[in-house]
Amino acid sequence: MDTILEAPNREASRDREGPGETSHSLAISVENLTKLYGDVTAVDNLSFDLPTGRLFGFLGPNGAGKSTTIGCLTGLIDPNSGTINLLGEQFTSDSTELKRRIGVMPEGLALFDHLYAHEFLAFNARMYGLDEQTVRGRVEELLTVLGLNSAHHKRLAQFSTGMRKKVAFAAAIIHRPEILFLDEPFESIDPAGVAMLKDWLRRFVAGGRTVFMTTHVLETVERLCDDVAIIKAGHIAWRGDVGRLANGGTLECNGQQFTTLEALFLHLVGERYEHLEWL
Length: 279
Known about the structure:
Elements: H1 2-5, H2 10-17, E1 26-37, E2 40-51, E3 55-59, H3 66-74, E4 81-86, E5 89-90, H4 96-99, E6 102-105, H5 117-127, H6 132-145, H7 161-173, E7 179-183, H8 191-206, E8 210-214, H9 218-224, E9 227-232, E10 235-241, E11 251-253, E12 256-258, H10 261-269
Parallel strand pairs: 3-8, 3-9, 6-7, 7-8
Antiparallel strand pairs: 1-2, 1-4, 4-5, 9-10, 11-12
Helix pairs in contact: 5-6, 5-7
């Protein structure tokens, strides 16, 4: 996987990836982003900046606006208002060249179920403009390291949920994007596969690239992410560096100290659990 995830040689890749690949200090800049579904406000006047080279966890309860935000940031959903800048350039759903510089693993995976895994990955690689030699090499490498070669005779519709997740992840990274958007990337993947994907993401960010990830697995976020934001009802309710927890530190919110991300999350979203007497 080194050829895909490690930092590229700047001179050798300049023609393919464009000038100023990581010269911009902000990977993502969002201002007053709003998305409505009828009378429901899914994302409400959202603004934030994300520096290049960060592994960003975007958390929140169900229905908070996480997937809608990713959809807007990747051109899958048109916002009602607001501005989005990716890699120093204004981004819209029509920003074709910018889309070549990002990778997306959406909530619904967006696989073509009638294809075989190697066909689907090759299609994605060609769509991003990779030459045929690179396409063949990366498809073979990804299928091998993800343990999917044994299912070469199955179409994607026959894959398990975890195998489908692996294929979607492979499709998102095959062109070695500068920003990687992941919506619940680890769900249904076996523990060994999760450990491998985490290692890839760490090296991806160490190479100067950026990951924007949503997940409900808070322990994973504590161990993996540099920067975390918690969204509630379309607003960012808290943002901070969770790395301090690894050194015995705490997270502060509303004058209170929290020793785990879970405790902070539950404080912010206001969840209260009642006993079911019949259980």
